[in-house]
Amino acid sequence: xxxxxxxxxxxxxxxxxxxxxxxxxxxPVWPGFHDGERWCSASAEEVEGPVLGWMTLEDAAKALDWxxx
Length: 69
What we know:
With 69 residues, the protein is α+β, with helices and mostly antiparallel strands. The chain has one domain. Helices cover 12% and strands 25% of the residues. The chain has one helix and four strands. It has one helix at 57-64; strands spanning 17-20, 29-34, 39-41, 53-56. A hairpin with an 8-residue loop joins strand 1 and strand 2. It starts with 16 loop residues before the first strand and ends in a 5-residue tail after the last helix. 14% of the residues are buried.
């Protein structure tokens, strides 16, 4: 099954995930976490703008298998 972005729930607090940001962002896919109140990048900087979805790092790695070289 192809991994999908989670949009209707938050990850466990402080669990590192892959975030999907708006396409106009400099990096539309970026590692980060939700600290229980806000989204932060993996370097703990607050993320500006909406997070459109997230997936575990394991699922993000599996998603690469769906990309044909």
